[in-house]
User: Which sequence fits this backbone?
C-alpha cells in the first residue's frame, strides 16, 4: 500500500467514525408506572417500570440507574406542595437493548413506613400514592458513555382506595 493510499484510507476511516459518532441518538428513558410489589409490617417494595428505547442502529447498554422516589405530603399538612423522599439508590444491573428496540425493566425500590411520616398516613386515608421519580441512567454504546435523565409524576392506588 502506498503512502498516499494509506493516508486516504486513514482519512476515510476517521471521517466515517466521526460521522457515526455524531449520528448517535440519545436513548429515551421513561418511567411507565409504579406498582406495589409487597407490603409488610415495617415497610414494603414498589416496582418502578423503566422503559428504555434505543433509536440507534447499534445496541446499547444501560447501567447505574440512579433514582430518587418521592411521595406527596398530605393536602392538610402545612406545606401542600411538599414531597417527602420515599427512597433513593442505584440499580446496577445492566440493561441490554438491541438496535432499534425497546425494553422494560422492573426496578424494585424498598421503603420503610417510619421514614414516610405524614405522607404514609395520607396513603392510609385515601388509598392512593402520588409519586414523583427522577434520576439518571448511564448509557454505553460504540465506546462512548452518556448520562440520560428521566422524570415522572403520577399516582397509584393501594389498599383498595376509597
Assistant:
Amino acid at each position: 500500500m502506498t503512502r498516499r493510499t494509506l493516508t486516504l484510507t486513514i482519512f476515510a476511516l476517521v471521517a466515517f467514525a466521526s460521522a457515526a459518532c455524531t449520528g448517535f441518538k440519545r436513548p429515551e428513558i421513561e418511567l411507565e408506572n409504579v406498582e406495589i410489589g409487597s407490603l409488610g409490617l415495617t415497610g414494603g417494595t414498589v416496582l418502578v417500570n423503566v422503559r428504555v428505547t434505543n433509536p440507534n442502529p447499534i445496541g446499547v447498554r444501560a447501567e447505574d440507574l440512579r433514582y430518587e422516589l418521592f411521595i406527596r405530603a398530605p393536602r392538610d399538612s402545612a406545606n401542600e406542595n411538599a414531597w417527602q423522599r420515599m427512597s433513593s439508590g442505584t440499580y446496577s444491573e445492566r440493561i441490554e437493548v438491541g438496535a432499534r428496540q425497546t425494553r422494560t425493566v422492573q426496578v424494585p425500590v424498598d421503603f420503610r413506613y417510619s421514614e414516610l411520616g405524614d405522607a404514609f398516613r395520607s396513603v392510609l386515608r385515601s388509598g392512593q400514592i402520588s409519586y414523583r421519580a427522577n434520576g439518571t441512567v448511564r448509557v454505553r454504546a460504540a465506546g462512548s458513555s452518556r448520562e440520560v435523565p428521566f422524570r415522572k409524576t403520577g399516582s397509584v392506588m393501594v389498599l383498595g382506595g376509597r
Remarks:
- The first helix runs from residue 3 to 22.
